[in-house]
Amino acid sequence: MTSFNLSGKSKVKKNLVKHSQADDDDNRILGSNNKRITTSEINTCEIMNSLNDKKGQSGATVVFVGSVRNHGKNGLVKEMFYESYVKMTEERIKNIEGRAKERWNIKKIRIVHRIGRIKLGSPSIIIALSTPHSKDAFEACEFILAAIKQEVPIWKKELLQNNKEEWVDGNLIREGG
Predict the structure, then answer these.
(1) Strands 75-84 and 116-119: what pairing?
(2) Are 127 and 111 in contact (CB under 8 A)?
(3) CB 12 within 8 A of CB 43
(4) Which CATH class is domain 10-167?
(5) What is the mean pLDDT of residues 6-11?
(6) pLDDT digits (tens, 9 = 90+) for 55-113
(7) Distance (Å, rounded) from C-alpha 107 to C-alpha 173?
(8) 67 strand-pairing partners
(9) How far is residue 112 CA from its own chain's centroid?
């Protein structure tokens, strides 16, 4: 199993080893109880490792990580604050996953969006999926990101370096289809 240790912390590596030993139970990680919204830091390494395909059905894995950047629509940013109606958000993301699975041959998928205060450079969202072919993986990931931006009720506020706070005008939320 390939392990990704992007943080360089041995504690993370130990957790990944424990996780990989239990990885045979994909439903524990990828099943219907999959948590899509979190207030905790997103463990990108764990999510990437959860896509390990021991059966060899996937030839491509695509991972998109959206991070907090230092500038936004309202100026220089020091942090972001994300808010959501969690129950509706979970259902909408689950629906988007289902539509993507119908359209592309997705073998495994994980989508996690973080809410609350998030520091510069920290991940706010991860979309990770595997398919037999790279074209499908890239197209599916792009579709999912666009659908989340259009259909999921997540609001963001820029916490600016000048100590002002500004909600970001987003897209009008529409029903998926």
Answers:
(1) antiparallel
(2) yes
(3) yes
(4) alpha beta
(5) 36
(6) 999 999 999 999 999 999 899 999 999 999 999 999 999 999 999 999 999 999 999 99
(7) 28
(8) 123
(9) 3
The pTM assigned to this predicted structure is 0.79
DSSP string, the chain: -----SS--HHHHHHHHHHHHTTT-HHHHHSTT---EESSPP-HHHHHHHT--TT---SEEEEEEEE--SEETTEEEEEEEEEE-HHHHHHHHHHHHHHHHHHS--SEEEEEEE-EEEETT-EEEEEEEEESSHHHHHHHHHHHHHHHHHHS-EEEEEEETTS-EEEPP-PPP----
Structure tokens at 135: 């074209």
CB-based burial of residue 21 (10 Å sphere; 0-12 exposed, 13-18 middle, 19+ buried)?
exposed
Dig out the tokens for 98 from the structure: 């289902």
Query: pLDDT-derived band of residue 138, with 50, 70 and 90 as boundaries?
Result: very high
- Domain ranges (residues) in the chain: 10-167
